[in-house]
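User: Please predict the structure of the protein below. I'd like the answer in structure-token form so I can feed it into my own downstream comparison script.

Assistant: Understood. Taking the following sequence of 135 residues as input:
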Amino acid sequence: MFSRLHSNEGFTLMEVMITSACFLVVAIGFTQAMLVAMRTHYLSRNYYWATCIARNRLQRAWSMSFDSLGMMRETSKHVDRYGNQTSDGRYLRSTIVSNITADSVWISVQVLYPGVPGGGSVVPIEVTTLIKEDM
């Protein structure tokens, strides 16, 4: 018969420490992956909204009369994600209107978007179009 006095049931302290260290390495890796994914999502969402702001501005230009396109000029206006001007807007929009000929206008919309928390984008989103008077 076996005696239960010197039983080897359970885990030793060394086994528990090694398992804990392995779990910690996996948890740190998972946490870093989640932080990178969240940052990427934040940046791509702001990039998408900046693109929408610029495209919507050009769409508005296409709906205006040719003679009033010059009124679209603006420099570094704060806008919200829908393109509405607000003093606390997180996006900076500039619209450049250039007359190429008497019957054609080149319009460029640039939008700076929020980058990583605490900083903005270095290179703006830029969307351009050419509008002719007879179009």
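That's the full token string. The first strand starts at residue 74 and ends at 79.
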